[in-house]
Structures are given as C-alpha cells and as structure tokens.
Amino acid sequence: MRSSGSDGQDGFLTIQYLLAVGLSLVLLASLGNLLVFSYGRGVVRAALDEGVRAGSRAGASPAECQARADAVLSDLLSGSLGQGVDVRCQSQGGTVTASAEASFPAWAPLVPSWSFTTTAEAVAEPAR
C-alpha cells in the first residue's frame, strides 16, 4: 500500500502564506507612509527657509516670503499631501518669521495621521 503523506491538513500552508503576505504588505505600506511623512516635513522646512531668505532681503515684504514659500511647496509637495500645509509669513522687529501648520493623512490603518507646526526666522537686511 502506498502512503500519500497527507494528514488532512491540505491547504493550511496556503492560508498561513496569504496571511503573512498580507501583513507584510500592510507593514510595507506603513513604512512607505512614514517615509512620505519624513519627505513632507523636509519640504515644509525647506519652503520656510526659502521664504525667510526671500523676505529678509533689503526692501522685501512678508508677501515675498509668502510667495516664495508657496512656490517651493507647489513645486515639491503638490497634490493631496501639500493641501494640508498652511504657511504664514510676518515681519516684526527686524526679523522675518515664517511658520507652517501641516497635517498629513495616513495611508495605512497602523499609521496615524501626522500633524506638526514649525517655524523659520531670519534677520532682515537693513534698507539702504
């Protein structure tokens, strides 16, 4: 008599494999979401830095700071991720300050949405 080697658990390995692959994909999406959050934070920081550089030139106004920061955001963070970013520039007491409030939505259920506030400051050049 020939033994087939089956003990009645055919297909059990397939369910385990599908579960492992599914969890791996969720983990991969979560990791990707965290990388996108990191990229977004870097872009917001770069936009604020560029804004205060433009706004701190001699004779410049906070509107120039705002325009430059908005231009950087639209170039590097367009789409749904960039819609959650609000930048404000102001000039006070010889300094130009740009602040941003950002909220990035999560892609995967294991990663929460991320919100943060950051600022950049530069000393304004004196008018000649």
Topology:
Blueprint: H1 12-55, H2 62-76, E1 85-92, E2 95-104, E3 114-123
Antiparallel strand pairs: 1-2, 2-3
Concise overview:
Helices cover 46% and strands 22% of the residues.
Q: Segments where pLDDT lies below 50 for 5+ residues? A: none
Kindly, what is the distance between the CA atoms of the first and last residues, rounded to a whole number of angstroms? Answer: 103 Å
- Total number of distinct structural domains: 1
Largest sheet: 3 strands, antiparallel
Instruction: Give the helix tally.
Output: 2
How would you describe this protein?
This protein is α+β, with helices and mostly antiparallel strands. It has one domain. It contains 2 helices and 3 strands; from the N terminus they run ααβββ. It has helices at 12-55, 62-76; strands at residues 85-92, 95-104, 114-123. It has a 3-stranded antiparallel beta sheet with strand order 1-2-3. The longest helix has 44 residues, at 12-55. The chain is rod-shaped, with a radius of gyration of 25 Å. The N and C termini lie far apart (103 Å).
Notable traits:
128 residues, alpha+beta, 2 helices, rod-shaped, 3 strands, three-stranded antiparallel β-sheet
